[in-house]
Amino acid sequence: MDGKSSARIAFVGAGGHATQSLYPNIAHIPEFDLVAVCDLDEERAKSAARRFGALEHYVDMEKMLDAVAPDGVCVCGPPSMHHALALRCLSRGFPVFVEKPPAPDLEGAQELADAARESGTFGIVGFMKRFAPANVVAKEFMESGAFGALSTVNVVHGSGPYDEVYRMMIFNGIHMIDLARFLGGDVETISAYGNRPEAECKTVVASFRFRNGAVGSLNMNSGHSWQDCFEQTYVTGTGAALLIDASKAVEVMAPDRRFANGEGLELFGWSSKYSVSGNMAGWWAGGHYTRGYWGKLGHFARACLGLVRPSPTLEDGVEAMRFIEATMVSLREGSRPVRLSDVDG
User: Fold this and answer.
1) How far apart are CA 72 and CA 50, in angstroms?
2) Quick one: which of 30, 77, 94, 119 is 20 to 30 A from 314 by CA?
3) Domain range annotation of the chain
4) Domain 7-129+294-313 belongs in CATH node 3.90.600.10
5) Predicted confidence band at 291 (pLDDT cuts at 50, 70, 90)?
6) CB 296 within 8 A of CB 130
7) Which CATH number fits domain 130-278+321-338: 3.30.559.10, 3.30.360.10, 1.10.645.10, 3.40.50.11540?
8) If you compute the radius of gyration of the chain from its CA atoms, what whole number of angstroms results?
């Protein structure tokens, strides 16, 4: 973008998630120049602007866009806010970053993708797990000759409590769905199983087939507290397997990873472990870097500068929401297999 070294980005939303998980990264991203903050609550907007280095704060997004003319806009709030405000930004030609889910439903997510295409700009969905270093390293290894052809992708997530399956899926499960797509590609067919609707712990187990022929599973439940959420990903290929722990460490299991001959013994399960958090300190080890928040905001800033290709796109948001809708259809219809191509918004 005309040789600029940083993108002038406006931020809409100054609630808890934005101020705890997103704004703190900005000072560590050279390409991200926070120029203004907007929130309906003026005190929150003013506080976030002061704390995180913006010169201006607003309560009206349109006035902010008129005054600041940013290179891009971040939107973080409830799903309905993502949808409504991102549509307005895209209609004016501003690239947008929206937190997940991009909209309350599949239809809204598709509207955003269509709006970006029609306006000739782009949008990025805040699927942070694509930028967590352990997942990036796993993806790199999968693309090496040592991994071989993909066989399975299995993702497990235990979240805090939810009162309904759909909310659990769009607010938490969507991260694991996008991670499965990041590692395995587009999904073709889903069969989903759940416990009884009246059960206090909401549970979904979905089996699915990727278009490339590999298979996968999602195991999701709401039986944890928000302090002890659980996440694990297991990926197998014809030459190796990967175990990713909470997007923070990845263990490679492959025949050529032996560190000793083990002569005279029958040994199995040789592996080497790559850790992305054990040698970090201070802010870096606090979660922003290892969990991918830093990476996704930095990627948006660089995309606004034209330095990288936008990813994950609003179309990726559509496919994650389509996965969820197909899961809900399968649950309602006795776990029958559902083709994602048959699911419309």
Assistant:
1) 20
2) 30
3) 7-129+294-313, 130-278+321-338
4) no
5) confident
6) yes
7) 3.30.360.10
8) 21
The pLDDT value recorded for residue 282 is: 44
Instruction: Provide the pLDDT for residue 261.
Output: 66
Q: Which amino acid is residue 330, in one-letter code?
A: S
Task: Give residue 268's pLDDT.
Answer: 63
Order of strands across the sheet with 249-253?
272-275, 249-253, 241-245, 230-237, 150-158, 215-221, 203-210, 187-194, 338-339
> pLDDT-derived band of residue 31, with 50, 70 and 90 as boundaries?
very high
Cα 319 from Cα 315, distance rounded (Å): 6
Residue pLDDT, tens place only, 207-264: 999 999 999 999 999 999 998 899 999 999 999 999 999 888 888 888 776 666 677 7
pLDDT value for 270: 61
Report the C-alpha gap between 200 and 203 in whole angstroms.
9
The label of the residue with tokens 């928000």 reads: 226
Residue 281 burial (CB < 10 Å; 0-12/13-18/19+)?
exposed
List the structure tokens of 255: 């025949």
pLDDT of residue 169: 97
Question: For 15-169, where are the E strands, in sequence order?
Answer: 32-38, 56-58, 72-75, 96-98, 123-125, 150-158
